[in-house]
Amino acid sequence: MTYLLLNYEINIMKTTTFKNNWLTATGLLLVMPTAYFILIGVLSEFGINGPLEAIQPLAEKWGIKEPPGLNISSVILFGPMVAFLLTIFQFMKIEWHVTKEEFLLHFSFYKRWFPILVASASVGVLAMLFFYMLGENCNC
């Protein structure tokens, strides 16, 4: 937009940011199966088998009669990683500048709560999977 004020031309630039809410929703859908399977595992350890019994007929219909196969395992492991990558750059901006003497790196975070929530959930789910792996494979 251009305005004329006292014979001076003033240019006003509008900037808009494209909010990729569909990417965030996709990230949330990628985190949910992993969170559900973790919830099933924790609740079944406490003797609550409701979520396991709720998904068992659907899993048998899909052909999953044994512990989760490769397809569902890859969604459980890589789903939160992809969700994190889909959402992290929606609220984090990285700028850098390289000179002969120094390398400047600047991180900026935007207050976009839905992508922050999904990225935090995916990091939390990945942390739970990591500590589960350590606990299962520890030779203590």
Could you explain how this protein is built, in words?
With 140 residues, this protein is an alpha+beta fold. The protein has one domain. It is built from four helices and four strands, in the order E-E-H-H-H-E-E-H. The protein has helices spanning 21-45, 50-61, 70-91, 113-137; strands at 2-5, 8-11, 92-98, 103-109. A two-stranded antiparallel sheet has the order 1-2. Strand 1 and strand 2 (8-11) form a beta hairpin. Helix 1 packs across helix 3, helix 1 packs parallel to helix 4 and helix 3 (70-91) packs across helix 4. The protein is elongated and about 60 Å long.
Set down the secondary structure blueprint.
Blueprint: E1 2-5, E2 8-11, H1 21-45, H2 50-61, H3 70-91, E3 92-98, E4 103-109, H4 113-137
Helix pairs in contact: 1-3, 1-4, 3-4
Number of separate structural domains: 1
The H/E string reads EEHHHEEH
Q: Could you give the count of β-strands?
A: 4
Multimerization state: single chain
Helix content estimate:
55-70%
Percent strand:
15-25%
Residue windows where pLDDT falls under 50 for at least 5 positions: 13-18
Provide the descriptors you would attach to this structure in a database record:
single chain; 140 residues; two-stranded antiparallel ribbon; two-stranded antiparallel sheet; 4 helices
Summarize this entry quickly.
This protein has helices at residues 21-45, 50-61, 70-91, 113-137; strands at residues 2-5, 8-11, 92-98, 103-109. It has 140 residues and is of the alpha+beta class.
